[in-house]
Structure formats: structure tokens, C-alpha cells
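During the second half of the funding period, the structural biology subgroup turned its attention to how the target accommodates small molecules. The most pressing case was adenosine-5'-diphosphate, which had performed well in the primary screen but for which no bound structure existed. We therefore specified the complex as follows and requested a full 3D prediction, including the ligand pose.
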Amino acid sequence: MIMKINNLNYIYNPNTPFEKKALDNINLEINEGEFIGLIGHTGSGKSTLVQHLNGLIKPSSGAIIIDGVNITDKDVNLKEIRQKVGLVFQYPEHQLFEETIYKDIAFGPKNLGLSDDEVDKRVKESMELVGLDFEALKDRSPFELSGGQKRRVAIAGVIAMKPKILVLDEPTAGLDPHGRDEILGEIQKLYDKEGITIILVSHSMEDIAKLVQRILVMHRGKLEMDGKPREIFKKVDELENLGLGVPQITKFMKIFKEKGNHVNDDILTVHEA
Ligand code: ADP
């Protein structure tokens, strides 16, 4: 087991008129190599939860154990945790800042104190993993790129840290359908090649259905469902009550597959029965 969450609660602005319980007694175990989709309506607590996973937010109560280390301990090495758990924020391209793509991706590995050769290797590898041409792009400014490509640079910067767990918060937000499919395709390839544990956050059932092996559904700060995509997608009425439609999943999946993408075959048959 790579991650265990025990009785996690989080309250924003406690003891003020703006008090808001964002996480309500979350319990969760994640095994190494799992590809997980975390889904829920806007405001259900997804971002709050994933920001706990690398120590950006401290729980109001409860424990988070990652790779045997309780990251809620006072004296935990946060740098080590952040290297282990790579978090790609929403709109990660807003955090690009270096003058070249190379420097941007190299920033994290350099901070780890790695040799120039190792940094170089990691930049090349991670660019390849997200489908960016190293030679053609390394000296260009990240700001000249398209939205989807900028996002790939940002993801490459996190992958270059070689995290054990990669958390992607709404990686397709704001992209057009083509850009969305591209990013999802790259994430799938990354998973197939590297076999790392991935947590993909989304409010889109469609995106989630394309890739993951296990779905976590959040609602009002609670973990309401946890299961295989096939089991979760069958609960159409329950999902609709949680504000999550299941719009013609099968049709979308077939088109996506026809375009040559990997599709979770389990899903294709859910609505055929
Ligand atoms: P999601 O990622 O699923 O959209 P969030 O984790 O962002 O959900 O939000 C969960 C709840 O916490 C929401 O009710 C939201 O309004 C509230 N919330 C989020 N961030 C803050 C904040 N910085 N201060 C106060 N309340 C917040």
C-alpha cells in the first residue's frame, strides 16, 4: 500500500462565520500502481483532498500515511514528500516562469541537487513522456506554445521529479475536445510506460471513464462511492443525485476508441445490457 488516509477532516476558517467543513471523515487506501479517478461536483472537496496529499494543507484532524511516512507529523520532511507525490495543479501552465522550456522542466530536478547530466536526462525523458520534441522545443519559450502544449511542459516538470504518485487536478480543464483527448492519451501512455500510481481529478465522467481502473466519488466532503468503473457507472440514478450525469458514455467511448485510443473495455458494455 502506498497511501493510507485515516479519518481525515478539514475545516476552512474554523471558528469564524465563514467556517466550512470541506472534508468529512475520509478513509482511503491506495495501492502502488493503481490508476484512480477522483470525481465529484464542483465544491465537493476534491482539490482540498489532493492538496493534503503532499502537505500543502494540514488536516484539521486525521492522518495521511504515504509510503510508510505519516506526513501529518510535525517534523516530516516536506521536500521529500513533495518529491514522492507530484501534484499537477489546475491550469498548471500559469506556473511556468523560465525563459526556456528546458529550464522550466529542469527547475525541480535541479533543486533536488542532481548532477547536470542527470537533470539533462530527466528533462529529455519527461518531455518524451508527454509527447514534446526535445530538440525542437528545448530552447523555445514556454509562452510561445499552445494551451495544450504549455500544459504538457508543466506536467513534464512534475514528472521530471520522478514521483511515486502523480496527482493531476483537472488536467483537461479549459482545453478543447481535441486538446483534452491528447492530454488524456499522454496520461494513459505515461501510466502504461512508467506504471506509477496516478490520481486523476475530474468533474467529467467522460474523461474518467476513458482511463481509470478505480473511481472515487466525492460529495459534500464525503467519499460517497469507491469501486470499479463498471460498478460505479451502473449506479446512474445515484450519480445523478450527486449531480454527476452519465451522458451516453458508451457512445463517447466508442468514438474515442475508433480514433485509436486506449479505452477501458469494461466501460463499453455497461449500457448495452
Ligand atoms: P472541488 O475541488 O471538488 O471543486 P474544493 O476542495 O475546491 O472542491 O472545495 C470544497 C469546499 O471548500 C467548497 O465548499 C469550497 O467553497 C470550500 N473552499 C475551498 N477552498 C476554500 C478556501 N480557500 N476558503 C474557504 N472555503 C474554501
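Two results from this model are relevant to the next phase. The domain at 3-268 is CATH 3.40.50.300 (Rossmann fold). Residues 12-13, 20, 22, 40, 42-48 surround adenosine-5'-diphosphate (CB under 6 Å).
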